[in-house]
Amino acid sequence: MHGDAYVVGSSGGGGVGNERPDGTQQNPILPNAKEGNWQIFRDVPGCRWYDPHTPYGFEFQALDDTLFTEILDFPIGPDNRFSVSVGDRILGEFGAGDRVDFTSLFGSGISNFKITGIDSLLGSTEETAFPIQLAFNDRIGSFKMRPFSQENSPQPVSESTSALGLLALGAWGIMKALSIRFDK
Questions:
Q1: Does residue 168 register a pLDDT over 80?
Q2: Which of the ends of the chain has fewer CB neighbours closer than 10 A, N or C?
């Protein structure tokens, strides 16, 4: 970690202080490098707004010792509901003014998450298309983010599909047991 150690279990990164030049979604911190289709944010202060270009959703990946502790806010605009997922677990839909506290949900910060359901881009340039405010486990953090299409996003499994699958599996098991019994 950079600087002083912070207790895992809180936003830790704070990053809120007198040095808030990028404190609004209209003036987000932009990527300072690019690696393939990943946009890299290296050694950026926590609790600020960050912005990649994205068509449907994007994936965030922490670098070095950085962990994401919270999504502090989502952008204000015509597209106002976004799904947040960690791994295959969809945490819910969120919008402007909402927070997602990863530390409370998972017991510590996380290294990867996705936001999907982005139907319209907000800014007039690639750099201001979808700003997001994040907190880290330290005052300074590094991460990368990349856009992805709808085909690559986590999809919830409906309960009816799960129930049908279990029913079919149970029926197959009964038929298999009966065929073994009749073969004897």
A1: no
A2: C
